[in-house]
């Protein structure tokens, strides 16, 4: 018999999220009789201002995951942030508390850290983070916890950010971990890849792509051709999803 307390609704907040990992993952999880009574659905909104209406129309929601492009934009709509989410400046998990408040958490950093750690060798000393969006903030926080210095890369150079045109052989000598936090290369645009001089990847490098569809992006393929260790974002998603599940249930 299903415990009535387990009859709860969860979902994913984002835009153009029909491809969603989270819906498939949690739906499969909830098919197990241990979790029977739970449900998970996509909440695809065209702009963040519709979030208030979404919450009002779904008073029985217990938790949400948050994906592109709302990891930063959702913060003003929340009542409270965890200490780490506040430090990171991005939210990918929302818990509906017993008193009806919305509390934001970041489990991206945890998922990334847990999936990167097994790959690290003593020569992996510094990282390049491609992109400056919400996902990159969780990655940066994880690197801080791992004591790995990093530099952001964007299409426009700003303070503490370099642009792609500055990346050369010397850059690859100095940075042994290259992390793609941009959506470039996501299905269906699988031929696209970040603008890098891929010839400078070596077996001393890690190429990490937060994208999981396709499983091997053009970014990863090109890095692998030069001997780099490669990793996609699938394990990160598993780890962050399970962390979110624990938060919703604590």
UniProtKB/TrEMBL annotation:
<keyword id="KW-0560">Oxidoreductase</keyword>
<dbReference type="InterPro" id="IPR013708">
    <property type="entry name" value="Shikimate_DH-bd_N"/>
</dbReference>
<dbReference type="GO" id="GO:0004764">
    <property type="term" value="F:shikimate 3-dehydrogenase (NADP+) activity"/>
</dbReference>
<feature type="domain" description="Shikimate dehydrogenase substrate binding N-terminal">
    <location>
        <begin position="12"/>
        <end position="94"/>
    </location>
</feature>
<keyword id="KW-0028">Amino-acid biosynthesis</keyword>
<keyword id="KW-0057">Aromatic amino acid biosynthesis</keyword>
<dbReference type="InterPro" id="IPR046346">
    <property type="entry name" value="Aminoacid_DH-like_N_sf"/>
</dbReference>
<dbReference type="GO" id="GO:0009073">
    <property type="term" value="P:aromatic amino acid family biosynthetic process"/>
</dbReference>
<dbReference type="GO" id="GO:0019632">
    <property type="term" value="P:shikimate metabolic process"/>
</dbReference>
<dbReference type="GO" id="GO:0005829">
    <property type="term" value="C:cytosol"/>
</dbReference>
<dbReference type="InterPro" id="IPR036291">
    <property type="entry name" value="NAD(P)-bd_dom_sf"/>
</dbReference>
<dbReference type="GO" id="GO:0050661">
    <property type="term" value="F:NADP binding"/>
</dbReference>
<comment type="pathway">
    <text>Metabolic intermediate biosynthesis; chorismate biosynthesis; chorismate from D-erythrose 4-phosphate and phosphoenolpyruvate: step 4/7.</text>
</comment>
<dbReference type="InterPro" id="IPR022893">
    <property type="entry name" value="Shikimate_DH_fam"/>
</dbReference>
<dbReference type="Pfam" id="PF08501">
    <property type="entry name" value="Shikimate_dh_N"/>
</dbReference>
<dbReference type="GO" id="GO:0009423">
    <property type="term" value="P:chorismate biosynthetic process"/>
</dbReference>
<protein>
    <submittedName>
        <fullName>Shikimate dehydrogenase</fullName>
    </submittedName>
</protein>
């Amino acid at each position: 018999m299903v415990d009535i307390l387990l009859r709860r609704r969860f979902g994913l907040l984002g835009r153009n999220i029909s491809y969603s990992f989270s819906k498939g993952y949690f739906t499969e999880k909830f098919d197990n009789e241990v979790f029977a009574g739970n449900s998970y659905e996509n909440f695809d909104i065209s702009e963040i201002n519709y979030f208030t209406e979404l919450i009002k129309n779904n008073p029985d929601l217990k938790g949400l995951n948050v994906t592109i492009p709302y990891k930063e934009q959702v913060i003003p709509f929340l009542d409270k942030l965890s200490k780490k989410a506040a430090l990171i400046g991005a939210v990918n998990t929302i818990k509906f508390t017993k008193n009806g408040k919305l509390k934001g958490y970041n489990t991206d950093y945890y998922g990334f850290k847990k999936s990167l750690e097994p790959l690290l060798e003593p020569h992996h000393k510094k990282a390049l983070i491609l992109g400056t969006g919400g996902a990159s903030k969780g990655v940066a926080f994880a690197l801080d916890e791992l004591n790995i210095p990093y530099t952001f890369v964007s299409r426009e150079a700003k303070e503490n950010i370099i642009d792609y045109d500055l990346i050369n052989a010397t850059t690859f000598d100095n940075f042994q971990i290259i992390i793609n936090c941009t959506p470039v290369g996501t299905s269906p645009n699988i031929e696209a890849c970040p603008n890098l001089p891929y010839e400078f990847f070596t077996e001393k490098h890690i190429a990490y792509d937060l994208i999981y569809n396709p499983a091997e992006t053009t970014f990863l393929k090109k890095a692998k051709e030069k001997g780099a260790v490669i990793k996609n974002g699938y394990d990160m998603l598993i780890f962050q999803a399970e962390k979110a599940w624990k938060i919703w249930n604590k």
